[in-house]
Amino acid sequence: MSRRLYYLPLAGCLAAGITISLNAASNAQQNSQGSFPDTQKHWAQPFINALAQRNILQGYPDGTFRPTRPVERDEFAAIIREAFNQNRERQISSGSAYRDVPSGYWASLAIEEAYEMGFMNGYPDKTFRPRQSVTRAEVLTSLARNLELSQRVPSTATTAQQAQNAKAPAQQASAQQTPRQQTRRPIVLPFAALTLMQPLMSAAKTATPPAKAATPPAQPAQSQTVASANSTSVPASQTLNSYYDDADQIPQFARDAIASVTRAGIVVNHPQQRLLNPNQPATRGDMAAFIHQALVNNGQVPPLNSEVAASRYIVGREPNRSTP
């Protein structure tokens, strides 16, 4: 028996489009509130919520966040672009200057800005490898490379009042950055891409990532790689061995940088604080924790209250102290 074909009139198509748009808007509002159904019992929920409420991290059109999903290089560039507003150190014609970033690629602008701010580099073969997962060591090295990190900041707020007080510099910093943020060119996704299962900020990754390179992208000179938090007489090896049981697994290119971010309170390790797992892919939950702590260090967001369970995974967190 032949099937009958049903034709939807133009008005119906427009109505369907409105329904899709309304659903997307509803999910976007849900994401901005940090209420993701798949993070309710996830260890990184407080970090995720804090960044989602500031539109630094967003979820997928179905309302989920997928905190265990590995972050790939193009998505990392997009997150960097939303989280930080550093001065440009260098120039590139566009993200499509790399052989494997086609013109019009959804993350081309983010790749361009992440490179110009000094957070990311390409590979010697003139590729960027946008679909390649980033490791935890690579993420931490990137943050150490270009942020002015304080030597030691409180990793947690011991009282609600301290958390409230921390918001003042965050709001001031946000107000100072607003004019510059308004000049940013938006990342425009094609309509077809919006209908796929992609994050509202970054594309979903359905293809298998290419094989990971044996060596990381070319690193800048060591004097540029290590942030100000590393200006200490304590050798990097001593810091790493003091905090991590798997310090011997940290790649040589990342050792000084990870010592720097460790002293700055950026590193968050779950489930065991003393296991860095530097060569494992960074998940979206990991990324939220690292970015959150970097913003805490810069005074842009308040630290987690020490009573929040997730705070116990912050490496080197200071014990609770009563205010004088």
Quick summary:
With 324 residues, the protein is mainly alpha-helical. It is 38% helix and 1% strand.
- Approximate strand percentage: under 5%
Percentage of residues assigned to helices: 25-40%
List the total number of helices. 11
- Structural class, judged by helices and strands? mainly alpha
Distance between the termini: 84 Å
Number of strands: 2
Radius of gyration equals: 21 Å
Physical arrangement of strands within the biggest beta sheet: 1-2
Largest sheet: number of strands, sense, barrel closure: 2 strands, parallel
Biased composition (Low complexity): 156-184, 205-229
Pfam family, one: SLH
InterPro entries: Cell_Envelope_Struct_Comp, SLH_dom
Organism: Leptolyngbya boryana CZ1
Give a written overview of the molecule.
Helices cover 38% and strands 1% of the residues. The longest helix is centred in the N-terminal third of the chain and has 23 residues. The N and C termini lie far apart (84 Å). The relative contact order is 0.18. The N terminus and C terminus are likely disordered. Keywords: Signal.
Looking at this protein, list some descriptive labels.
324 residues, mainly alpha, 2 strands, 1% strand, disordered N terminus, S-layer homology domain-containing protein, SLH_dom, Cell_Envelope_Struct_Comp, signal
Please write out the topology.
Layout: H1 10-32, H2 45-52, H3 73-83, H4 108-116, H5 136-146, E1 156-157, H6 160-182, H7 191-194, H8 222-225, H9 236-243, H10 255-263, H11 284-297, E2 304-305
Parallel strand pairs: 1-2
Helix pairs in contact: 2-11, 3-4, 5-10, 5-11, 9-10
Pfam families: SLH
InterPro entries: Cell_Envelope_Struct_Comp, SLH_dom
Signal peptide: 1-24
